[in-house]
Request: fold
Amino acid sequence: MLRLKLTIFTLFILTNSFGQKIEKVFLDKNDSSKNCYTIIYPPKLPLTGYIFLIPGFGETAENVLQQTDLPNKLALNGILTIIPTFQDGVLSFGVDSLSQQTFDKILKDVTSKHKLIDQKFYVGGFSIGGSCVIKYAENAGIKPTAVFAIDPPLDFERFYNSAKRDIRLSKDNEANQENVYMIDRIEKETGGSPTTNLTEYYTISPYSFSDTTQRAIKQLIKMPLRIYTEPDINWWLKERGADFTSMNATECSAMINELNRLGNQSAELITTQNKGYRKPDNRRHPHSWSIVDNNELIEWLLRQK
Reply:
């Protein structure tokens, strides 16, 4: 078997306003659009752990650093912070096998390069990035110490059917183009619709409401897990013409409920009110990094063993 040799290339090293060194590393120096990671170093040693923060769909590491000070605060608390970009670039689907394999490849590169032996290992993400980390935790050979996800879509059977319904209810030529794109993308990843390929939807979904075997989430029975969501139904009705059936909060609550019933009392659903705003103009949006109390989250992470 031909062994693939990866070339590590550093694009830039700089220091932010918190006195932390930020470095961007590429696994292939000839491609600056994917297979890379941004790493935020704590200003002093020893480390208290390391964390992978996965961006939402379409987000770069720079977008994440603009939307939230969580990476900087993690580093200030001694946690080596890594924001990766996977094989599909910013259009990574997160829960697909290619994204998961790239996650593992970047993880191995980071742990080897920085000799992260016996360190606490955390994973977290926003939106599809949250879906990604939960799927990763379910199948990882090295289990994370703790996991958190910010308003992630979890059940892609529900997601597909909701997107189809939204298009059906839309006026001519006014369908949400994100839903049009996601339907095509989900069909590509699963090979069809829930009607024709339901088992593939179970395979990619971190949680499936209709999967009575609870196959995926049984891998998380002993995992400390937090899911954050801001179920502002009136905002969704007014601004997006969406209802509870279209909101990630439905399956987020269902998954936590089932994990609790399976015996995981370290699985928590955290709901917020009026915390979702996006930078730089502080535009109201409940599906945002900002719904998290970053200081309290970091305290929770550091308590896990």
Remarks:
- The two ends are 39 Å apart (CA to CA).
- The longest strand covers residues 9-15.
- The chain has a mean pLDDT of 92.
